[in-house]
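Internal QA ticket QA-208
Title: Verify multi-chain structure generation after dependency bump
Assignee: T.L.

Test input:
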Amino acid sequence: MSELESLERRASRIKLLLMDCDGVLTDGRLWLTEDSDEQKSFNTHDGLGITLLHRAGLKSGIITARSSKTVARRAKELGMEFLRQGNSDKIAAFEQLLKQAGVEESEVAFVGDDLPDIPIMQRAELAVAVADAVAETRSVAHYVTRAKGGQGAVREVIELILKSQGRWRDLVADYLK
Amino acid sequence: MSELESLERRASRIKLLLMDCDGVLTDGRLWLTEDSDEQKSFNTHDGLGITLLHRAGLKSGIITARSSKTVARRAKELGMEFLRQGNSDKIAAFEQLLKQAGVEESEVAFVGDDLPDIPIMQRAELAVAVADAVAETRSVAHYVTRAKGGQGAVREVIELILKSQGRWRDLVADYLK
Amino acid sequence: MSELESLERRASRIKLLLMDCDGVLTDGRLWLTEDSDEQKSFNTHDGLGITLLHRAGLKSGIITARSSKTVARRAKELGMEFLRQGNSDKIAAFEQLLKQAGVEESEVAFVGDDLPDIPIMQRAELAVAVADAVAETRSVAHYVTRAKGGQGAVREVIELILKSQGRWRDLVADYLK
Amino acid sequence: MSELESLERRASRIKLLLMDCDGVLTDGRLWLTEDSDEQKSFNTHDGLGITLLHRAGLKSGIITARSSKTVARRAKELGMEFLRQGNSDKIAAFEQLLKQAGVEESEVAFVGDDLPDIPIMQRAELAVAVADAVAETRSVAHYVTRAKGGQGAVREVIELILKSQGRWRDLVADYLK
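Actual output:
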């Protein structure tokens, strides 16, 4: 079985797409103001991708070590069902989340960019690193995106999953009537 | 007729330039804060381009799925006559807007970057995709800009239109007196 | 006389460095929020450059069509003596400013990025366009910077001027004691 | 002794990592609003790097000419022990800070990007310039990072130091259990 076939087989099994936030849904920049606010920039192509993922019946969620109302706001806006913030022990959050979602590790994809994402990536059926992830994280990934974090990496993963499941063409067809 | 001639002929007919906002007038990044504010970054070269478009007697407008006071503020600042926000059904907004403007589809250009822009692009006389639009959107465009969204793509379209209409040289001459 | 000699001769005469703001001191992005605020990003290398320019006894100023407290704040912070905002007729602002400064056109450099900067550039002893200026503006410049606006273009101009005046080495030497 | 051996020997001695803020921990952009706020963007990979540095028993600090609550907030968040803001005379701040930390110059690394960083770099055991530092600063550095300021330059320095001290592998192993 070729590497591509192996990748597509993994992608075809996914029911839940989980991801880190900073450096994955964003470009890894934390915007701090002098007061206590924290600003993040999200990508509009990723946003539509997540909408399409949900339309195809898959679920999505965020597991992040930081904690900010901005992330909660974006997750809600996109209808992401699962959100775990402030978890320095990401693997515990991962296990709880899978139980809550009623999904097996063999049905989960995870997108990461740095060392704390590795333990989850080693458990997930499909482990993805963004193009500008650190070397160690890229080395444990089944797939490294062409796009950098915050620049469409999540959209790229979603297209990989939905194409492997034979769902992409129909979703796009809705726009080509 | 060559592809360039065909493109220039389309551009020469345009009386109304419509565009998506996120990813076209901006680089596709949504800046969210912890409170309910939403920040966007607009390009100064695009801004002058829209001013020149109006000076040449053409009209302009924005059709976007999101809804934000920031977009209304920028549209007003630039004197853009038409603004339709919060339209998940962009094609309905497009049809209403054309009626309001008294303009035919054969006189409209549209600039987009993602799947929801495709239905309008399939109807517009001149369909433009920004350089970093998704593949499906680029594939239905008559023209793909060299510039990315938020980095002068709209200015590039405006120059194409005004040059095709023989108006660009005079507008620039005002600055070369 | 070679082109480089001509450029250095022009640079050697400068007593006052004027510049546009958006696209020159910034990368041309206007950050708008939902309320009336307007945010701009300035470059730290440009900032030190302007400090060194003043230390060498030269003066500096900003002429811009937009109007924002942010620009006034940055100009004040850097000790820039001249600031003209909200001037759609930049050439009138330019003439008034020269009178106020007691400086001749043959002693002024101007850095621009778009069409409205051209009239001033045609009058200034040293006309500079940033790397990402529009084509028409680059074509009237004596010098086009290697750096883009907001990414050190102004610092590059200042080094050109101070080196041509034989002042750069001493200013740097203060840091190499 | 090769240049690389010399570099690794210097890195192996470091107990305290000091750095400039703007242009090193950030990309050199100062984000100003119309009111008195000042926003900065920090890199998430740098953040984890500093956490790992502390975990290895090394200390860190910031010496910067500007003064902003944003920097204090980020330093505190990352547990950075030393912070000197508003110091136009960086070398005095450097000397006081070393005394406070009980560390010799031969045990200090400093990361800079512009002229005011040079005096400290000439004293530090390991002088590092970010990839987009000005030419004079790069020329006095023992090491120039591949990454630009705000895009992982500090993380790159930390990996250099911890690898030279034989600590990196163990720190990473915690994530590879």
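Spot checks passed. The interface with chain C takes residues 22-23, 28-36, 39, 113-116, 118-119, 122, 134, 136, 140 of chain D (CB under 8 Å).
Status: verified.
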